[in-house]
Design brief:
The protein is an alpha+beta fold and about 110 residues long. Helix content is about 25%, strand content about 45%. The chain has one domain: Nucleic acid-binding proteins (OB fold (Dihydrolipoamide Acetyltransferase, E2P)), CATH 2.40.50.140.
Length: about 110
């Protein structure tokens, strides 16, 4: 009986740890930005818009559920059309009639996928 409990515990712990490593869908963030407020998330998608300056910039990432802006404080933002994985903190904008406006991710890191 004790062996079964240990196996169950190990299985549940593995599932929880593995699910925490996955990317968050952009649509989930946009649907409830206050839930993700100041939390670190990882999203994957394609860059649909990109703009940069000397030491800062931003870009928009789209997955199959929506789009979100990423604010970068480092030089070298990814180009339009590149596939990326972004890690950063969610900054909610405003919500009007159930629709979120201005929600963004402040980038901590990004990786370009090939």
């Amino acid at each position: 009986m004790r062996k079964n409990k240990n196996i169950l515990f190990a299985t549940v712990l593995s599932v929880l740890l593995l699910s925490a490593c996955g990317a968050t869908k952009i649509g989930r963030i946009n649907a409830d930005p206050m839930h993700y407020r100041n939390k670190t998330v990882s999203v994957k998608g394609t860059v649909t818009n990109s703009f940069g300056a000397l030491v800062a910039g931003g870009y928009q990432v789209e997955d199959d559920t929506g789009k979100i802006y990423v604010i970068s404080t480092r030089s070298g933002v990814p180009s339009k059309g590149q596939r990326v994985e972004v890690k950063g903190r969610v900054t909610p904008g405003v919500t009007v009639m159930g629709k979120s406006f201005g929600t963004a991710i402040t980038e901590q890191d990004h990786k370009v996928k090939f």
